[in-house]
Design a protein that fits this description.
Layout lengths: L1 E3 L10 E5 L38 E6 L18 H4 L4 E3 L5 E3 L2 E6 L5 E6 L13 H12 L8 H5 L1 E6 L4 E6 L6 H7 L8 H5 L10 E7 L3 E6 L13 E6 L3 H10 L4 E2 L7 H5 L4 E6 L4 E7 L9 H10 L2 H8 L5 E2 L13 H4 L6 H10 L5 E8 L2 H15 L3 E8 L1 H9 L6 E6 L6 H7 L15 H11 L6 H18 L2 E7 L2 E5 L2 E2 L2 E2 L5 E2 L4 E2 L1
Parallel strand pairs: 3-12, 3-13, 17-18, 17-19
Antiparallel strand pairs: 1-6, 2-14, 4-5, 6-7, 7-9, 8-9, 10-11, 11-12, 13-21, 14-21, 15-19, 15-20, 16-20, 22-25, 23-24
Helix pairs in contact: 8-11, 14-15, 15-16
Length: about 525
Amino acid sequence: MTELYPSTPTGPSRRSALRAAGGGTLLLGLGLSGCRSAVSEASSDTRSPDAAPKRGGILDVAVNNDFTPGLLFSQSQQSLQHRLIYNTLTRYDDRLSPKPELAASWTYAKDGRSITLRLRDDVTFHNGRKFTADDVVFAVKNLQNPVRAAQLRSTAATVTGFEKRGDHELVLKLAHPVNNLFDLFEFMIITDPDTVEDAVAGRKLIGTGPFELKKWSPGSGLSLTRYDGYWQPGRPYLDGVELRVIPQADALISSLRSGQSQLSFNVPGKNLGTVKSDKRLTVTDYDTGAGAIYLGVNTTVAPLNDRTVRHALAWALDRDRLLAQTLGGYGLASAAPWPKSSPAFTEAHRTHYSHDPGKARELLRSAGHTKLELPLLHLALPSETAIAESLQYDLEQVGVHVTLQPTDPATGQKKLISQDMPALWTMGHGFAQIQPSTLAVSAYPFNEAKNTSRYRSDEYTEVVREAWTKPEPTAAAANALHEKISGILLDEAFIIDLVVRGQVQVSAAGLHGVTLNKFSYLNLDDAYLV
């Protein structure tokens, strides 16, 4: 048995804080390829080391789309509030080392077929009920339910047995070893079993987190208030949080600059220069690559069932221009999904496709095409619209004429899950910032068993399953498997990655202590306003 004695959770993922010109010295330059200057790698928490956190205040968070109850158990653009209302079992640090949250410690069996969790015994739900092992059993079984459309359902499904040893110790028995169990533990929110159906209907959201739901106003946002029974002593500092829906970019930026809102992750890339010049605001780049922008291809739609045509699209796209002009320089132009922090990252994969319209036209001609007409779905949000227009321009230059199909975020996510996309679509994906195998067994665009592109390959399934079920391969064996997965993704091009990009946070200079977990769940346990 391998005994783990977790330490106190560390701070946020490694980030780069960019202070406004004249407002501080932390100003970083990002080149066209997204390479970060090493001027500073500091936290956005710029208070004096001797300053004490301040209690009270309501934090106003500007979001560009509303909470979608039906997607509560999926990771999506509507997941920001998850860690405010709920907790998870564990939380990764920068090195993908799990740290305790509701699980205080754990013992992993040497054969990888079971794990014993020792749970905190001082945790209560917002309704006053004590948290026990039964709630973890429910959480796992809930994600195993296909109705929940949870990305990590495959990993949850490997749990085939539960052995309770009192109220606060639980053994999870696995059908086979997996190397991403702690991905599941950071992803899986712990909900109140008795009210879960009310939760997915938007009536009640009862968790163990630092804030409890006061009100959800559909179309306007969520109102949260401090939970006085929170298990973290003295936390949270804030009295409440308002997640306010502001779909228009100009209005969202105005709300930040006026001080009406103090935090947002939805400022379009092309507008980041404007807010960066405002000394009242701080721009923070979460540089662990929690997401990536991509062009999705439905491989059942002719002529996109021809790999040569898909290669042509991959060569046609100008990733550097997209990064510089549309995303404000925040990110890493990349043909592969992996951030630099991933063990699967290589420079050769990142640069596998470059912008070469001549080569794209040549490939199209070799496949018998000089002109194509295709639809391109995108989310009807300012940032996503700008991305779609950039791709539309690049494809037009090689004879691929696309018609944009703006779609609301909730509908877009449902189409992604149900494999109901048109010939082309553009969105963002996550799951490359954790264990590499998780991307290919969990993310809707990449899932080897059922992906949005409707791509299937015995070779892809075999290598993904091998990578997933080897919990501790040698470094050489792991690298070989990562190389095979990346090679298939690049050669088959059913998902064409463009820019690896973490969350970009814009916050008031007086806001401190904000963090995100690996799935971009907002953590405000230590946040305060001055």
